[in-house]
Specification:
The structure is a homodimer.
Chain A: H1 17-20, H2 28-34, E1 40-41, H3 54-72, H4 82-93, E2 104-107, H5 109-121, E3 127-132, H6 136-144, E4 148-155, E5 158-159, H7 161-173, E6 178-183, H8 197-210, E7 213-217, E8 241-246, H9 248-252, E9 258-261, H10 264-278, H11 283-295, H12 298-323, E10 329-330, E11 338-342, H13 349-358, E12 361-362, E13 364-365, E14 378-382, H14 388-412
């Protein structure tokens, strides 16, 4: 008998405990709708790879295959290609990081580095401290390894040191094992804020005093709109920080090449974990990146990306300033892909999303960036992918939706609330 | 203070329990030596990608980037590219598997599929039944997720049904939860044997009766030397089998593209696990494979690979037959990459390895393919990578080493035994 859409799963009693924490987003179907071309999506975090001239890569791929095909097409080392690891040192040099190629583990995107770090450090019930809000992909990994995730407040300069100290103290008092402090210091996803140098020093000092490893995630560090790239926390402590980086936003996300820089003993564990997970990262992808870095003007290309994203950020901020109803606030990103918007009192971003999509604009509701139901009044706006005019049109539509919600609140005392949405309320990265 | 080679790891008390199961091979350094060009390596399992004409891929890469660059360079779906999933159905059709594209999850090599399946099903202490010997990469994953691994005897037709039944009965009697039966039915790594159709049916029937999921790993299924490819077990049960496949041996391992075909509910979990692990597999690698399958004579190319490996298999078997001392036996592979050799009584393959490497030939000692110290009298010989003449030379050197060991045993009653080697005694795949 075919049971159609609600097939029974004969293996439902066989899954591991950790599989129970893996849940599909209930609003994923909505994001599938939101990926239709008539919808302006301010939801997904897709880099604008169209800004990368395709000739830069065709020449690269051709040369790679002709000159080093047998190596590029073969298994490689679990730790990653050694030439690429040397080149990564040039890249991280831009944020002040110095290291040895042997300190680097190349991964299938930095998401996999997050996965490996968590796998190596976290037993079920171990605590990971994260920002409030935090990157949904990291929350997914921490959940998958059954960590207890504790959110710590942010302000306009990111993670609040005093709140971090209090969280550590409370965890210690409760006898909990805090394994990691996970932070995105530069151009935060989703909050759009950046820690200043003093803030970074304070956070590092707190982590060091507590003897807790700092997990610094820096995918956007080179995508600042003014001045020099912010100096990484890892630049000031090689033993207490694991630094994660990625080529997804500076070259192309479709290559899936990221990395971790870790203290010696940790790096050894990460390599073993990586070998169990994938044997080795793709030589083909790694050597494409390596060839690109060796032969193409990659620093110039990053400048091009910065210009593209700055123009879009400006389009977003100007439109928000011009159009958003009173009581709406948002962060001013100095780089990266995102602004974090707070709706007027009484509005609910999750409940509002279906009406936004009906009005042909999409965003990610704030709850997806918390494990504890916070964020209902927030939403994340991405300006990385749509052209500036589309961004302006999207904000126009969103403002109209918010105005409509405000009228509902005025009339009925509350906006129409959806059933409570659980799980990871964020679209897959390709649903921009 | 710098402590030089034996640096202390300040994070040694922070690791998860599962990280304790991640150990580097003590003989890895030896394999690094064995990768020197003067050594004939019969150790690694590197496919002979040189047999793939590089033009087939340069044209593919070029067309892909020019025609679909912005998609190939972008994030993709967590489940994998839908066109590629349709094409995978053509490939698995060769071993009798029929499925829906939606049943497939594309992974970063089939190693990652092993990782995801284990992550989804296995709590610490859960039992996984494997062949004796079994694929070292699978043992590494099961160990990384703290499974109890139980080896079941093989004969010349692979996994012995009666032994499987006994292992299941014993586990049930002991109150253990058996989550997976892991098998490589075709051209086994490392044993070089293949289950016949009746054997497969018996094994499937036992798994079904026990209500245990069968994990069928089939990287070599299309690389048989005679007749049609063996029909996959999955061809006869879509609900009780997870089927793993890979393009590593039929196209190129450096692309890292593999897949799992799983029952509906399991597939959903695997996609969620994959998103946590890597967000999505590389669009660039997937679409390279897809373009290759769509435009190149891939079935002809697989025939070429078969011819290459058959010639090498023949070189190995003829040399073994001509040169090995009495009391040495080996399996006769009908496809794939490996023969499993049993040394004469009293010899120890692990202890012998340093002398073999000194004599400029390398192999993998049998203990790496067991979790329980079995296999000391065994070794794995790979014929996939060296040219036939090198294989003959390698066997000549190996025969001399074995003769030397036999003389030692005759003189002293035992061969000189190394300290006990622990951990995964297998080289990284690039150390061929």
């Amino acid at each position: 008998m075919t049971t159609g859409g609600s097939r029974l799963d004969p293996w439902v009693d066989s899954y591991a405990a950790r599989a129970n924490a893996m849940r599909a987003s209930e609003i994923r179907a909505l994001f599938a709708v939101a990926s239709r071309p008539e919808v302006v999506s301010l939801a997904g975090g897709m880099p604008y790879v169209q800004a990368l001239p395709v000739e830069m890569l065709t020449a690269t791929a051709q040369r790679l295959l002709v000159e080093r095909g047998p190596v590029a097409l073969q298994y490689g080392s679990g730790q990653g290609d050694v030439t690429l690891r040397e080149q990564i040192l040039d890249v991280v040099g831009e944020v002040g990081v110095t290291a040895h190629p042997d300190d680097i583990v190349v991964t299938t995107g930095s998401q996999m580095a997050l996965d490996l770090v968590t796998r190596v450090f976290c037993d079920p019930g171990d605590v990971v401290i994260v920002e409030a809000p935090s990157y949904v992909g990291a929350l997914g990994v921490f959940r998958a390894f059954e960590c207890e995730v504790i959110h710590v407040a942010m302000d306009d300069e990111g993670l609040v040191p005093q709140a971090l100290q209090e969280a550590l103290d409370q965890a210690a008092a409760a006898g909990k094992r805090v394994k990691l402090i996970y932070t995105i210091p530069s151009f935060h996803n989703p909050a759009g804020v950046t820690q200043g140098p003093e803030r970074r020093a304070e956070i590092l000092s707190i982590a060091q005093s507590a003897g807790v490893l700092l997990l610094e995630d820096d995918p956007y560090g080179l995508l600042g709109f003014e001045g020099e790239p912010p100096r990484a926390i890892r630049a000031d402590d090689a033993e207490g920080v694991i630094y994660l980086g990625s080529f997804s936003k500076t070259i192309a996300s479709g290559l899936r090449v990221g990395w971790a820089i870790a203290p010696h003993g940790v790096r050894e564990k990460l390599v073993l974990a990586s070998e169990a997970a994938v044997l080795c990262p793709s030589n083909y992808a790694q050597m494409t990146v390596s060839e690109y870095l060796a032969t193409q003007p990659w620093r110039e290309q990053i400048k091009t990306f910065r210009e593209v994203y700055r123009e879009r950020r400006d389009a977003l901020l100007e439109s928000l300033q011009a159009l958003m109803p009173e009581g709406t606030t948002w962060t001013i990103p100095a780089g990266g892909f995102y602004s974090w918007l707070t709706l007027p009192e009484g509005l609910d971003a999750t409940a509002m999303l279906p009406r936004a999509v009906a009005n042909l604009v999409a965003y990610v509701p704030g709850t997806g960036f918390y494990v504890d139901g916070q964020g209902r009044q927030n939403l994340r706006l991405s300006y990385c992918y749509p052209e500036p005019d589309r961004i302006r049109e999207g904000v126009r539509r969103l403002a109209a939706v918010i105005e409509g919600e405000l009228e509902l609140v005025e009339t009925f005392g509350t906006s129409h609330v959806l059933n409570r949405v659980t799980g990871s309320s964020v679209p897959a990265p390709d649903l921009a």
